[in-house]
Give the backbone structure.
Amino acid sequence: MKKHYQNRPAAAGFTLIEILVVLGIMGIFMVVSYPNILNTMAVRNLENTTRQIQTYLQQTKLQAVSTRIDHRVRFFRVDASYWAYDMERLQANGTWIKAQGAPRKTIPNRVNVTITFPAAGANHVAVFSPLGTFPQFAINQNSITLQNPNLDRPGQMDERVLSIFMGGSIHYSKRKSS
């Protein structure tokens, strides 16, 4: 009596042990790379927030030049929890109103914010003249510093700084927190 299963070809596929070994290796790889993924996401979020503010400042400067009316960006705390900012324009009577078509922007809570613009009451303002200049320029009163505490490690560039100069130019830089 001949057994028929001896002539059958071996079944193709993976054994359970092979699959578990591959999954284990992939799991170890994921655990090792997870901190790097989080670090990359924190850096991207910090840079995106800083670039958004820089773009808004540049748009405000361009509005001042194109309309020949002083414009400003007003930074303020909302419910003592997070920062927001608006574009405003100067009225003939000396008051400021929200610029039409300029949406309010916010800075995420996970970012530490230090603003050294001149204060207008409880707010900080960056004013641009019709010439595109920053007439309120003063030493140590012309920057916004954003810092992500998740990036606070030795050697890590965890701060992004936007500095406005008297001529209205806006400089973006990265640095280590002190």
